[in-house]
Amino acid sequence: MWSKLVAGHYTHVILGPEQATHKRVLKLLRNAEFNQKLALVAVDELHMVYQCREFREAYPILYK
Fold first, then answer.
1. CA–CA gap between residue 26 and residue 19 (Å, rounded)
2. 3 state SS of 4
3. Between β-strands 40-43 and 12-15, what pairing exists: parallel, antiparallel or unpaired?
4. CA gap 28, 40 in Å, rounded
5. How far is 64 from 57, CA to CA, in rounded Å?
6. b/e for 7-31, b at 16 or more Cβ within 10 A?
7. Which residues does 17 contact at the CB level (< 8 Å), separation at least 6?
8. Under a CB-based contact definition with an 8 Å cutoff, are residues 20 and 43 in contact?
9. What is the mean pLDDT of each run of 10 residues along the chain (64 residues)?
10. Is 42 helix (H, G, I), strand (E, B) or coil?
């Protein structure tokens, strides 16, 4: 699935907070060529940012 994502086969991507803050995902999301093929990036469970900030450490850093 990663190779298909990198190749631009998907226009919509739904990630969990841990996936969205992974170094290689962040690098890909910052790639201008990749972004031209992308229509939507959604982070699932974002409504839990405040409630789970201590339980799931990746939530508070999603703004980066």
1. 9
2. helix
3. parallel
4. 14
5. 14
6. eeeeeebebebeebbeeebeebeee
7. 43, 45, 46, 56, 58, 59, 62
8. yes
9. 92 89 92 92 70 62 64
10. strand
